[in-house]
UniProtKB/TrEMBL annotation, chain A:
Keyword Aminoacyl-tRNA synthetase on entry: no
Name assigned to this protein: Ubiquitin-conjugating enzyme E2 2
Xref: InterPro entries: Ub_conjugating_enzyme (IPR050113), UBC (IPR000608), UBQ-conjugating_AS (IPR023313), UBQ-conjugating_enzyme/RWD (IPR016135)
Domain UBC core: 3-164
Organism: Aspergillus cavernicola
PANTHER family, per database record: UBIQUITIN-CONJUGATING ENZYME E2
Keyword Nucleotide-binding: yes
Keyword annotations of the record: ATP-binding, Nucleotide-binding, Transferase, Ubl conjugation pathway
One Pfam family here: UQ_con
Catalytic residues of the enzyme: C89 (glycyl thioester intermediate)
From TrEMBL, chain B:
Classification via PANTHER family: E3 UBIQUITIN-PROTEIN LIGASE RAD18 (PTHR14134)
Name of this chain's protein: Postreplication repair E3 ubiquitin-protein ligase RAD18
Coiled coil region boundaries: none
Domain UBZ4-type: 178-205
Pfam entry (one): zf-C3HC4_2
Function, in words: E3 RING-finger protein, member of the UBC2/RAD6 epistasis group. Associates to the E2 ubiquitin conjugating enzyme UBC2/RAD6 to form the UBC2-RAD18 ubiquitin ligase complex involved in postreplicative repair (PRR) of damaged DNA.
Species annotation: Aspergillus cavernicola
Chain segments carrying region Disordered: 107-150, 343-402
Length: 165, 402
């Protein structure tokens, strides 16, 4: 077993025996530890409350030296830091190499001591507090900044739609 | 499913009354590989990792994974104390865990009594009150060390009945502030034990049954430096000053494979250097053949024999991905897939709606040809922008005007 699969197995076990509130994650298929799916509950007190968001995580072979990528599946998520195709843009998922815009502190970036659990917790708090300095979805960022109530209405609508209501 | 849960980890304690051992165990584990420290070394910023883990991190990034201060391989120092802690804990772990799990099973499973009836007449029961206040208070100190998890959940346990068998009841511990020598059972001051152990004859050892993880096997040897001369460390190479042929020869001289591209040669050499130098930190160094086997595992998973490119971009395609070339190269494959899909579709249509028209499958195939590449391509563009692989820092943010 290689270093990366070994570590992913451990993280899987930790996450299944002691999952953080509102988060579930594990490999899609245990034969391939490099593709995970995760479920994140919308944080309480935000327009995402009540929603359950599915995402997939793809791990590189040299994990944990390099970070995984994360993408919301099934309709994506209307959020300033989520690309329209669902890809999550958050500093913890970026390797601490070059940062063209210098808006991210190196301390927030990926490091081998980070983990799936920490990524998912960060994404959960990202849902609650968007970072509009580095928008991945410009439209959502504009709406969040200028027309907050419309933004919240739209998000709530999507949450309801996602739940099939 | 099963093999996954055979991996021991710190959460094993959470289902037992000894939940506070979880943070203790997680502080004995390397933050990079999540396994117990293996040949722990300490960085100049005072963080401890497995020798191999930190060498791999430093050779890719040159920074401590915990605090990101720059560090060099040469400054790593062995951390014997941590190594002994890990060894000691690992010796005690199985029996400790077994003991911790026993109360839960004690109601139904006969632990060691064979044919005894359900009442366990031989056992005495003792009630332990869980005092929440003391639990959390005692946890604080350990928890700060455990950077891995913010909050350790306290499993709510009802008052627990611990089933003691008679053997253990014998092991009455007087409350005199002294500790017993694990070998001869003589009681002495805590500080004196280790010194005493070096000379202990262990005369009483046989009289005590080793019911709880025999410490006899773990009897502490005075720590000594490796007596033989340790293997020489491999020096760093500045790859840029070496020509391909020289580097290839160097790899050959080291006895490791020297095939593949320049980049692969450098990565393989780096991995070998890390494996080798980490092995030099070991108290019981492995043989070279074993290291070669580990390099072979690396070769198959991340090196030249891995199925995908080891590049982190393997999960997403590059922006300059040649989609035209790709579709030309795999044209026949695509056509075959389309043909088989059409056949399958035909068969399904026939089986459900007898005499369905032929026009539908044709439409389907034309969308199949056009759609996937374009959709994929837009995704690729976005992702590569996000990760800055275009090299120009073309991020979504650039186009954003407040």
């Amino acid at each position: 077993m290689s270093i990366s699969t070994n570590r992913l197995f451990r993280e899987y076990k930790t996450l299944s025996t002691n999952p953080p509130d509102g988060i579930q994650a594990g490999p899609v298929n245990e034969d391939d530890m490099y593709l995970w799916e995760a479920l994140i509950e919308g944080p309480i007190g935000t327009p995402y409350e009540g929603g359950v968001f599915a995402a997939e995580l793809k791990f590189p072979k040299d994990y944990p030296l390099s970070p995984p990528t994360m993408r919301f599946v099934g309709g994506g998520v209307w959020h300033p830091n989520v690309y329209p195709n669902g890809t999550v843009c958050i500093s913890i998922l970026h390797p601490p190499g070059d940062d063209p815009n210098h808006y991210e502190h190196a301390s927030e970036r990926w490091s081998p001591i980070q983990s799936v659990e920490k990524i998912l917790i960060s994404v959960m708090s990202m849902l609650a507090e968007p970072n509009d300095e580095s928008p991945a979805n410009v439209e959502a960022a504009k709406m969040w900044r200028e027309r907050r109530s419309e933004y919240e209405r739209k998000v709530r609508g999507e949450v309801r739609k996602g739940l099939g209501l | 499913m099963e093999p996954t849960f055979d991996i021991p980890d710190s959460t094993d304690w959470l289902s037992t009354p000894l939940t506070l051992l979880a943070p203790l165990e997680s502080s004995l584990r390397c933050q990079v590989c999540k396994d117990f420290f293996d040949n722990p070394v300490i960085t100049s910023c005072s963080h401890t990792f497995c020798s191999l883990c930190i060498r791999r991190c430093l050779s890719t990034e040159g920074k401590c994974p915990t605090c990101r201060s720059s560090d060099q391989e040469l400054k790593l120092r062995r951390n014997w104390a941590v190594q002994e802690l890990v060894e000691g804990f690992n010796l005690a772990r199985p029996s400790l865990l077994q003991l911790a799990r026993r109360p839960a099973e004690g109601d139904r499973v006969t632990v060691d009594g064979g044919g005894q009836d359900a009442e366990h007449p031989a056992f005495k029961k003792r009630k332990i009150e869980q005092e929440d206040g003391t639990q959390t208070g005692a946890g604080e100190g350990i928890r700060t060390r455990s950077q891995r998890r913010g909050v350790v959940r306290q499993i709510e346990t009802p008052p627990i009945e611990i089933v003691d068998d008679d053997i253990q009841d014998d092991a009455y511990i007087p409350d005199d502030g002294l500790v017993a020598c694990p070998v001869c059972q003589r009681r002495m001051k805590n500080e004196a034990v280790f010194r005493h152990l070096d000379t202990c004859t262990g005369s009483r050892a046989e009289t005590r049954p080793a019911a709880f993880g025999s410490l006899l096997t773990a009897s502490r040897r005075p720590f000594q430096e490796v007596t033989e001369k340790p293997p020489d460390r491999l020096p760093h190479i500045h790859y840029s000053i070496l020509k391909d042929t020289v580097l290839r020869k160097k790899l050959k001289d080291l006895g490791i494979p020297n095939w593949g591209s320049r980049a692969l040669l450098e990565r393989r050499h780096k991995e070998w250097m890390n494996l080798w130098n980490a092995n030099c930190d070991s108290k019981t160094p492995k043989r070279k053949t074993e290291l070669l086997r580990e390099l072979d595992t690396w070769e198959r998973t991340q090196g030249g024999m891995s199925t995908t490119t080891p590049d982190p971009s393997n999960s997403v395609m590059r922006k300059d991905f040649d989609s035209a070339g790709w579709s030309a190269d795999y044209n026949t494959d695509f056509k075959q897939l389309i043909a088989s899909a059409r056949k399958k579709n035909d068969a399904e249509v026939r089986s459900t709606i007898p005499g369905a028209s032929q026009a539908e499958p044709d439409e389907l195939s034309s969308t199949l040809i056009v759609e996937p590449p374009t959709e994929a391509q837009t995704q690729i563009d976005r992702c590569s922008e996000r990760l800055g692989w275009s090299g120009k820092g073309a991020r979504g943010a650039d186009s954003f005007e407040p």
